[in-house]
UniProtKB/TrEMBL annotation:
PROSITE patterns: MOP. The keyword NAD does not apply. Keywords: Molybdenum. Residues 72-138 form the Mop domain. NCBIfam families: Mop. Pfam families: TOBE. This is Molybdopterin-binding protein. It comes from Floridaenema fluviatile BLCC-F154.
Amino acid sequence: MPRKEQGWITFQSSEEERNLLEQYCQESQRSKTEVLRELVRGLTQQWQKISQNSPSVSEVKSPVPSNYQVLGISARNNIRGKVKQVLIGDITAEVIVEIAPNVEIVSVITKSSVERFAIAPGKEVCVVIKSSDVMIAVEH
């Protein structure tokens, strides 16, 4: 069984996403591993460009009072991105986050979370993926 310590990454995808990956692999005559590695490397390059133009965490003044403790998170799949679109329903909202040019992740969260964190197009967020859950994190 694959283990995280060995560098394995597992995630769930829709049938449409799996079919798209299969088709791309067949047409490019490359394995899924090669394609996904290339995607991750591309994200790494994008992240380096973004982080060079952004202030470091220590330079950002937090609106959280100093007596509050910042919490870590156990989910290892944390991807920074920018909110592209928010579709609000009666109870839930669909948040579309662009993590790289033309690469989007969609999260369904509560409408109250969107309001509480002031999630809107253009806002920098962190997409947190744990198993089949896709959550949104924001810096306070």
